[in-house]
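The aim of this short unit is practical: by the end, you should be able to scan a pair of folded records and say something sensible about each. We start with the first protein, listed as its amino acid sequence and then its structure tokens.
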Amino acid sequence: KQWYQRRVAITAGGERTPKDLVRYVLNMLGDHAKVIGNQADLDKFTVSDGEYMFVGAFESDSSLKTEFLKIAEQQREFNRFAIVTNPELLKKVGETNAVVAYQPEFLRNKWEPHYKVFKGESFDLMNFVKLAKIDLVGIINKQSVPIFEVARPLLITTFDVDFEVNRKHTNYVRNRLLKLASEYKDKVSFCMGDLNMTHWYAPDDRYNDTGVLMTVISKEGWEYTVPKDLPFNYENAKKVVEDIISGKIEAKPFQSEEPPVQKKRVQRVVAKTFHDIVLSEDKHTLIEFFSPYCGHCKALIPIYNELA
């Protein structure tokens, strides 16, 4: 679970399957950004069965190149990075002073390009690296939840996703989602995840579901689980999407407590008032998430009140 680099132990990121741990170790070996000098190596690099691949195409030194190498060192456990400076190879890549993100081969499809190009300012590069995984139908896991949930409203489809053991069913679901996403991409975002994500999103009575679970994240961030009597197929999924757009699906807060009467400078926020108070555009908000049973939280109360 740990890899020693420069005498510093860092915890392995991602899942803990044997395949993921092997991939993690291989990513941590050698240079954080592989220098590619010929077409054969470029072709080999841009075809991967796991991670997204980022190729920095640079004619000369630049702030974007410096930032790319910095990000490659920080993110090498999650993605693969390479750099191209050979003039002939740059012509093959088709870009200069740019970063190109390539989809893993098993995710490539006819509905979208298998690569994305970044030619912006260096300070925006990390954002590009993070958001590159939001494809027409991206693959969500626990590490990428914050990235995907930004793209709301969002339809999350979870089941026994496996592009090797359960390939036929996985592609059956994904191809129907891709068709939907190509039609509604400007109105709703789509992603899919494995049974770990079913456990993440499912209500208590469906925690052990192994079938296809559809979860909607509304524009406001509330969750809605599509009823079990609406099984997954293209027509039903399309109906869910159209109901999201029309507003028929109204996701609700997990708890529907009544907002308290506010008498203090520290306001107590509940689900119904979270958006209006915490996300208000009128002022900045400092919010403490606490438990009434937490000793540290109780000790903070007088200090927090004094600060307010």
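Turning to the second protein, read its sequence before its tokens, just as you did above.
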Amino acid sequence: LMHCTDADCANDLVHNCTWVNGTICTKAPDPNCDCAYTTGDVLYNEKMCKADARCAWDAANAVCQHDECAAGQAGSQTCGAVNQRCVDPTPAPCTDDWYCDCVPPATRDPSTQPGQAVAVCVLDECTAVCPTCAGTTCSDANQDCFDPKRTLTSVGDWTCTCRTPYTGVAVANAAVCQIDECVDQTCATCAKTTCSDKNQTCHDPDKSVLSDWTCTCPPPSSQSAVAAAVASCDFDECTLRKKTCENAGQTCVDPDQSV
């Protein structure tokens, strides 16, 4: 009996139980009294445990046990129906504290707490270990991994994103990182205004390589310098126009090659 009442004690004529001080139904004079034990007594606990069909009495440890995740139990059935694993944190004592948890590599959504019967599971392919997961693909390439949709059914959609100052994104693979050092104004190796300040044109021939940009003089000069402005864009116009003079039997002279 979970609780002994006046009637339980007074009506037990077979074992001659007696109610003492209005609080405890004692076992004297018969040790078989049904309401003989208080809640703090091991014998009472054993009696209550055996009265619960779900529970089993562990005599060696004097505790009432119940694996709520065992086959056929409520926890096992509920969690199994949603492909989750059942967890019973305290099989002793016999309590209803089971809950469902996610099956790795999925993890419980950090916004939810154990205790909900069915868990809210997420799969972050950037941190989990699974066949479709990123693993070290992004980090090995010095890139950042991002999983835009962390549901169990959305797999293979993680991305690698290049780190500043590079740009580039790839799905389920390392990205091709590029930077136009003539356009970008933030990187340490960028041209910034080096070329424009000298009225020269900036060109970045390989956007996956740093410090390869060039400054090129305006036409008709074709001089250029790598990662620096051309010191002088002076151009002898006679290299292009001397034929005009020669055809007239004259000599070509360019008095100011900077103009």
